[in-house]
Write a structure and sequence with these properties.
Blueprint: E1 27-29, E2 32-34, E3 48-49, E4 52-53, E5 65-68, E6 71-74, H1 81-90, E7 98-116, E8 122-143, E9 146-159, E10 163-168, E11 175-178, E12 199-210, E13 214-224, E14 228-230, E15 233-266, E16 269-274, E17 276-279, E18 285-288, H2 295-299, E19 307-310, E20 314-341, E21 346-355, E22 358-364, E23 377-381, E24 387-398, E25 403-424, H3 427-445, H4 450-453, H5 461-472, E26 477-500
Antiparallel strand pairs: 1-2, 3-4, 5-6, 7-8, 7-26, 8-9, 8-10, 9-13, 10-12, 11-12, 12-15, 13-15, 14-15, 15-16, 15-20, 17-18, 17-19, 20-21, 20-22, 21-24, 22-23, 23-25, 24-25, 25-26
């Protein structure tokens, strides 16, 4: 049975904008409304609010000249409303030299899917819930008259609760199941049948539970801050590198496998019969329903048949780990950040990121004859072969002059269309089977040797098939180019806190 295997970046957008708290909201003084946008004089005032005294230096006024991003900005004690707004805009993180750090918690819901083009097999993990912790940092500086910022981030997530896995070899095709022949006649036919039956299409469906997965990612980037503006919106283009890895496992897997014979379509409905084997009294296979030439023979039972059985049709349960996949998306990106100032304390930011990563998926799955679980499959696509779209938006509000709170949403979509696939076969399984066949052959044919067993007309079809497999898969690794289509998508809600120094 041949099986070849085949998205969660939280951009931590809150870290891109931190609002300067030159005013801390709306207050009421002695019953009279005092707008926070009205300049305060130098005379002190105070008001009692939940036990805290506020004084004039809470809302500082400026005189003289201060340098912001290499541009001289002159303000006086008699600031106007517009001057205050402009000054606040330039005090946003990224519009000022210095260091900032941001940390947050996200709840993300994700799905990962991959499909094999040749067999049509489709596997997907649905409703994956991630709890994600992240920390990000950046440093703004000037190079001549150009304002720049270097950023870096790290995230770690763990799977919360259970999600479902569906491995579908029914709706999108099936798998190739080898029917080894006991013998091949002089015309090259298997077991004397009119047509060779070395391969048939099998179908399977299994459903399991996934829990205990984890994910990890990091990113680095550099951007040009305040490079251009439109009204109160500041745009910051950047480039960088992003890496994401996640691991998912399947437990308590239940499935059904059917090796199908004839399929019939009536009024648009398709029904397929399983392969049926007819045995004699010694337990040897007399014939199968695949070999019957007409409908009467197909439906009848041979007169010398003692009992019947099915070929490769069975139900199974796997209480332990049946599937395990580790997936990586990594590569460069370009991004655009947009910051919109609402007032001195509140702002909204958004980000659009386009990435061009590579893709690697390493799987351990139960579709081997021996049901063993070493490395089973590996799918790869080089950098720039995959695509990543990242979107995000945050509302940011000041808590103090240097600390801000953010609430936002993120969306990520990774996809690859032509990843190459490798299947790692168990060499010892096939070689031990081959050695047994050779021993049986020699015992039965008077030590005629391997050459006779591999004779294409009179040899043992099972041995011939094993040798053919070894030839087609050098080193017992089968490779198929441009075989895998895969995508990963996630939607998250994040709460973060930002501090600047």
């Amino acid at each position: 049975m041949k099986k070849v295997s085949l998205f969660v970046i939280n951009f931590c957008l809150a870290g891109l904008v931190s609002v300067s708290a030159n005013a801390a909201g709306t207050y009421y003084t002695n019953g009279a409304y005092q707008s926070p946008q009205t300049p305060y004089g130098q005379s002190a005032y105070s008001t009692q609010r939940t036990g805290t005294t506020y004084s004039a230096n809470r809302y500082p006024t400026y005189s003289g000249t201060r340098n912001v991003l290499g541009t001289n900005v002159t303000t006086t004690t008699k600031q106007t409303k517009q001057t205050t707004t402009n000054t606040t805009t330039k005090n946003q993180k990224g519009g000022k030299n210095g260091f900032w750090v941001d940390a947050g918690f996200s709840r993300e819901v994700a799905q990962w899917q991959f499909e094999m083009k040749q067999s049509g097999s489709l596997l997907h993990y649905d409703n994956i819930d991630w709890n994600v912790l992240d920390i990000n940092a950046g440093y703004g500086f000037n190079v001549g008259k150009t304002a720049m910022e270097v950023t870096a981030g790290f995230k770690y997530g763990f799977q919360s609760g259970e999600s479902s896995m569906v491995d579908d070899d029914i709706t999108n095709g099936g798998y190739l199941a080898s029917l080894f022949c006991e013998s091949v006649d002089e015309n090259g036919n298997c077991n004397g049948s009119k047509d060779p039956i070395l391969e048939s299409v099998g179908h399977a469906l299994s459903v399991g539970k996934s829990d205990g997965g984890d994910m990890m990612g990091f990113n680095i980037g550099v951007g040009l801050t305040d490079i251009f503006k439109w009204g109160n919106v500041r745009f910051t283009p950047s480039i960088g590198y992003r890496y994401l890895k996640y691991k998912l496992e399947t437990k308590s897997n239940y499935g059904m496998v059917v090796d199908t014979a004839a399929c019939f379509e009536v009024n648009g409905e398709i029904q397929c019969d399983p392969i049926i084997l007819f045995y004699d009294s010694k337990g040897d296979v007399i014939t199968t329903n695949l070999e019957r030439e007409n409908i009467d023979e197909y439906l009848s039972v041979p007169s010398d048949a003692q009992h019947v059985g099915t070929q490769g049709t069975y139900y199974f349960q796997q209480p332990g780990v049946s599937h395990s996949y580790e997936v990586e998306w990594s590569g460069p990106y370009i991004a655009m950040d947009m910051d919109y100032l609402i007032n001195q304390n509140n702002s909204v930011n958004a980000r659009v990121e386009l990435g061009f990563p590579g893709y690697t998926s390493t799987g351990d799955q139960p579709y081997r004859f021996d049901w063993a679980h070493p490395k089973s499959v590996e799918d790869e696509a080089s950098m720039f072969s995959a695509f990543h779209l990242g979107l995000g938006a945050n509302w940011v509000t000041a808590i103090t002059d240097s600390i801000s709170l953010s609430v936002g949403v993120t969306y990520d979509y990774y996809t690859v269309s032509d990843a190459d696939a490798k299947t790692y076969l168990n060499q010892s399984y096939y070689t031990s089977m081959y050695d047994e066949l050779l021993k049986e052959w020699n015992d039965k044919n008077g030590e005629s040797g391997e050459a006779g067993m591999l004779n294409p007309k009179t040899g043992d079809g099972r041995a011939i098939a094993i040798k053919q497999l070894e030839s087609e898969c050098p080193g017992w690794v089968c490779s198929i180019d441009s075989e895998i289509e895969s995508f990963y998508k996630s939607l998250g809600v994040r709460v973060g806190i930002n501090a600047k120094f």
